[in-house]
## 1
Amino acid sequence: MSPLLSIERLSVAIGGVTLLDDISLSLDRGQILGLVGESGSGKSLTALTVTGLLPLIGGRIASGRILFDGTDLASLGPAGLRKLRGGRIGFVMQNPMTALDPVQRIGEQIDVVSRLHLGLSGEAARARTLDLMGQLRIPEAAAVAEAYPHQLSGGMKQRIVIAMALAGEPDLIVADEPTTALDVTVQAQIIQILTGLVRERGLALLLITHDMGVVAQACDRVAVLYAGRVAEERAVDPLFERPAHPYAAALIGCIPREGMAEGSLKGIAGSVPPATQFPPGCRFHPRCPHAVDICRTERPLLRETPDGGLVACHLAERIAG
Amino acid sequence: MLAYAIRRILMLVPVFLAVSVVIFLILHFIPGDPIDNLLKVGAPPEQRAEMMARYGLDRPLPVQYAIWLGKLLTGDLGTAIVARRPVADLIGQALPHSLLLGGLALAFSTVVGVTLGVVAALNKDRFLDRAIMGGVLFGSTLPSFWLGLLLILVFAVGLGWFPVSGARTWSSLVLPVLTIGLGGTALVARITRVSMVDIAAKDFVLLLHAKGLSPMRIQIRHVLRHALIPVVTILALRIGWILGGAVTVEVVFARPGLGTLLIKALSQHDYPVVQASLLMLAMAVMLGTLLGDLLQAAMDPRVRGALS
């Protein structure tokens, strides 16, 4: 059987600039795929593309395709995409503080999803909303449903956003940095809620984050993006034990660990270049400590690793070995 | 919300007093007085002094103000010195004409302005948007008295569709309403478009799309709903402005109304009439501001939240 979500050799452009270059990923029910990388690596753009929101920000699919449950998203018209969005694909945004309509009551904002996608009546939709809010451990759901967004905390708002994503009975949830804007104490709760949904309901979760700690804690597989390309795609444990791509290794090196000597926490020098200035060859080479001549001229293709992952680095065997 | 409304109304009291002082004093700084209009040229000074005493104009200004304010608070606007009629009658005759004209002009600029703004926003950066915004920019640069004359020239004198002046028929309202309303239309259209485009780029709108709502529903039920908050505030502020703007337009179209009354009284230095007319205009501005604040609180729960 084909996976629930399959991104095949996808390239995305905004204006004349290609921002995602030949990306392939797949995700099945009951799985959590982490998408990591620094700002500018193309994570959020991937999320918007998968949810069919690309045209809203003026982007288009330049080549490749996205299959959702066997259907090519490009073959669906706007109406078909709308049915999918909020219905079978739920979306959780990065900043819950700005994700809700400030002048509409919380309950109505959740109700509309099940009314639209499940065809529920007003009363049934509200009952479902309150039920979902209860499942997400939102206290006094009935009172919260009558509240306006500004009356709730950030963590509570993110639960509301998750409730909205769940209201249409989705198969896939795309969460774009769902914890970045929240307090550390609340971050863990939100990640627990999301992973719980995958385990209990068999949802698929595309979890976009730049927090390698969250990846280690929650994901089954990880795709590391750099400058619009997949650098490495592997199961979580081997990736953290023996990262094959220098960029993946550098990201993991940025996680603080117990017993680390003071001052030994690493960063990665430099930043992701803007899309108009991507360098030739391996796009990471200007920041790579291992770079040799071939990295500067030739694009590294994705190759299989012995444990069934993929890596795009000329020197992968040498570094991992 | 009710407490807020009461507080806002109480805040108008000192504003009202300050405005009344300015309105009372401002006329006395203009050379000449109403008695000039009542006396023949070369009348003896005794006759003049007697007239001044009859209308209380010989007393010190603070005393005159206190008497005027005291009467005002009991609803007595005084008697017109030159026109020799109760001021309340004059205002009572003029005000309905001005309110009708101003109200229709406000309704026109709201309906047409919001519609144009929405159409422009929905077609952002396309031909229709540029055409509407270009036309609106042109319209907003025309002074109303000049636009009034132009409309008269084309539609009344040239085409003969509407009367040149007066207020005898409903059709005589068309040109004055257009004259006042067109300027407001430009403003409303621009604010509607700008705030719709601004709101449409917000995160929560992206999430509405992600929920699968149709673009039209998102634009009208959410984006426009937000965009109308500043529009309503501006419109409420314009209530006073439109009545004030009607002053020149009423004169251009020779219509009865507060403006015509004010201009005539001003030229005759008829203090009580000028004072009462100006007070009406000032109160319209104050009430408009109050209405704007209350509507904003009614439309935006965040504003209400900040109040309590």
## 2
Amino acid sequence: MSIDQTKSQIQMQQLMVRYPTGKVALSGVTLDIKQGQFVYLVGESGAGKSSLLRTFYGGIRPSSGTLMVQGTDMRQAGETKIRDLRRHTGIIFQDHRLLFSRTVFENVALPLRVQGWKTERLIPRVRKVLSYVGLGDRLWSYPEALSGGEQQRVAIARAMTAKPAIILADEPTGNLDVDTARRVLDYLMDLNRQGATVIMATHDLHLLESHPGRVIQLHAGSLARVEP
Amino acid sequence: MNQRNSAVIPDKVNPRLPGGFNLPPFGIQQILALMIVCIALWAVGVIWLGMQGASQWVGSWQDEIRIHVYLHSKDTDKATALKQKLELVEKVESVRQVSAQEAAAWMQGWLSDARMNQQELADHLPVSFEISLAEGASEFLFSDIRDAATQFGAVVNEDEVNLAQAHQWISQAGYLAGFASLILALAMALIISNTLRMTLLARSDEIHLMRLMGAQEWFVRMPFILEGMVLGAGAGIAAWVLLWPVVIGTGDWLYTMQIDLNSWAMLLPLLFGGGLVGTVGAFIATAKVSSGDIPSN
């Protein structure tokens, strides 16, 4: 994947998000995230990290301001454009949201299945990404048979299987011990080196020392600090 | 590991990928719904088999019910006047005077070719009028025909009147059967819809994930539409199979009334009817998941 680090992947101007309840989640956020960056979103609980991540895949729409994600205007985009954007976006959740009634293969294959891949074509691809996260031999296991760290690695495999341009990770290390969290972050860093833009919301500030990246701090829905 | 080997699925492993044309697995809820819909479809089948038997009983294989009036006098003027009088009765479409030769030939046939003298038979037969009835019923139709006949000393074939009246009652019963079938179909659609709603709830995480990954609406909904269709069609076939004991059990009794029920005629209506109500139920169940998680501005 060729990376043009001058090209904006996500641009926002005076972004504001207000929920139907009236609560303002984000206010006046102006940011530019370039292709191939590794970005940490930090801030206290309720600062707006998850809301900001959700706007990047159309989970919530901006109330005002502008937001362009991979060239898509998120305020004006129709459902077709949002679907297309989601096909190029990998999402990792804190609770990993694996389907426990389905095998590891079925979980990881889901993004490709959604894109219409046939089973025969899926297996080599899924095996490859699972081998990458060290779970090549757990293709036909069920998630409940895996440890928390392994489950999060399956979630990473699921997020990367469709080779997305952006990976959004919402506190992926939140439930993991320090060593496992570092290993999960190693995978995300490696995906970033391969060209994916990674945006990760986190509370684990100690990870920033071992895995440096651009830090965007939010406070009460507004931008508090951007480094560098 | 080469590409060819890595695509091999081990024995006893059957990947069940969600979405598209893949059916969700059947569980106890689906089996219960299938049984309930089967009973409802069986009831519909019994109703329409009953209609079929009743229609055979009154001889509705005839396209048109005709009433015959017999005048024993050979007076031509009287016959003409009677014909004119009968034509004036409301809901009488036409009156045809049956020729003596035609009546004699029919009688000869009815008596199983008794080899009677045709002319002699024609001389002894009354003047016959064949009345064709118009569409729709008139409350006093048969009384008016009787009155007209009585005025000229003629008689009406009361067996035919009874059959015509029975035919009218069966037509009314047909509407009732149609209405009952419609109500049962609605109930069946709601039962299937409720079952699928439970499946949708159980799979809400999966549906949400598929949408987050950019799945199209048809891709998310299709398994549930197919499940509804299969549930309905399966219940239809089961209901049809369960009609056979009824048909076989009542066969001897019905045979005494010259009724021969045709169960095969119910196969396609029950199969496609079941499939249709299942599909309608699935559309009802999936209607509320159409909004997805893509909020509008």
